[in-house]
Amino acid sequence: MSEDSSLPQHHVQSFCTRPPPPLSCPKTKICSYRGAMGLGNKYVRLNVGGNLFYTTLQVLTRENSLLKAMFSGKKEVFTDKEGWILIDRSGKHFGSILCYLRDGNLNLPKGRQAVQELLAEAKYYFIQGLMELCHNNLQGNKEQPLCEIPVVTSVKEEERLIQTSSKPVVKLVYNRSNNKYSYTSNSDDHLLKNIELFDRLSLSFNSRVLFIKDVIGDEICCWSFYGQGRKLAEVCCTSIVYATEKKQTKVEFPEARIYEETLNTLLYETLPLPDNSLLEATRRSYTNCGSHSEEEEAPGGPEPRERVRRIHVKRYSTYDDRPLGH
C-alpha cells in the first residue's frame, strides 16, 4: 500500500468547484394583512417601487382607499423574502400620500407637473380627499406664460400694435416659403439661430420691449425696430448668391447687429425722448459689412428728418453679380 493511500480519507480535499447558481428574481409570497402584522405590532414595512417606507396600520386604513382594502384583509398583498410588502408603483410621491393620510392635509409640491403626478397616484390609491385637493390646486393656479408674443396676420393688425404700444417694438419677419430659389447649405441653420435669438431677447426684455412675429411679410428673414410709433432700423438677413450656374438664397445671422439695434430701441422706452446728441450717436452711418444708412438733412434747415437705418447683410460671390458703380 502506498504512502498516499494510507492517509485518512478526511485529509483528502477536493479542488473541484461548482458553478454559481443562476440569478433569479426575489421570491415573493402572498399573504393578507395579518401576515403583514407578523412583521411587528407597531409598524408595517412597505417597498413601493424600490423606495422603503415605515408606517402604521392605523395610517394605512384611515381612509376608504385601496390601501385600506390591502391592509384590512379585503385584498391580498405580496411580500418578499425579507418580509417587505411590495407595491408596484412609483415611490416618488408615496411619502406625500402617507403625510396626507396622517394629517388629513398636505402642502402640495411646487410646479404644475409635480401636482399632476401626485394626482395620478391619488387616483390609483383612490384617496378622494387628496384628489380634490390636487384638482383645486390645478384649477386655481394656472401657470402664466413668461411672455406673450403676438403673431400678426395682416398689415392693419401690425400697424395697430405698433401705434398703440407704449413700449419699443421689435418685429421679426420669418417666412421660409417666401423664396423662389434653393437655400445655401447654412441657411436653414441661420434661420433657426435667428428664431432662437428672437426667443432669447423676448425672454430677457419682454417687460420693456414688445416683440412681434410676422409670418406674412415679403421678406424671408428680416428684423425691424420701432420706437415711439415710427421705424428706427431694419436688419435684412437674406441675399441672393450664385452657386455654379444657378442662383441661391443665402440667410445670414448678424447676431451682434441685432443685439445692438435692440438695445438702441431702449432709448425710446420712456418719454421724453433722449437728448439729440444721444440720438445722433445711434444714427451714425455704417460703412462696413455692406451696410448703409440714410443721413440726409431735411431741406431748408440743418435739423435732421426722421430716418431709418437699413442694414442689409449682403455679400456678392461674383464680380458680375455686383450692381453698377460698386
Automatic annotation (TrEMBL):
It comes from the Eukaryota. One of its GO terms (molecular function) is ubiquitin-protein transferase activity. GO terms for cellular component: Cul3-RING ubiquitin ligase complex; endosome; nucleus. This is BTB/POZ domain-containing adapter for CUL3-mediated RhoA degradation protein 2. It is found in: Cytoplasm; Endosome; Nucleus. One of its GO terms (biological process) is protein ubiquitination. Pathway: Protein modification; protein ubiquitination. Keywords: Cytoplasm, Endosome, Nucleus, Ubl conjugation pathway. Residues 317-326 have a biased composition (Basic and acidic residues). SUPFAM superfamilies: POZ domain (SSF54695). Residues 42-110 form the BTB domain. Residues 289-326 are annotated as: Disordered. Belongs to the BACURD family. It comes from Takifugu bimaculatus.
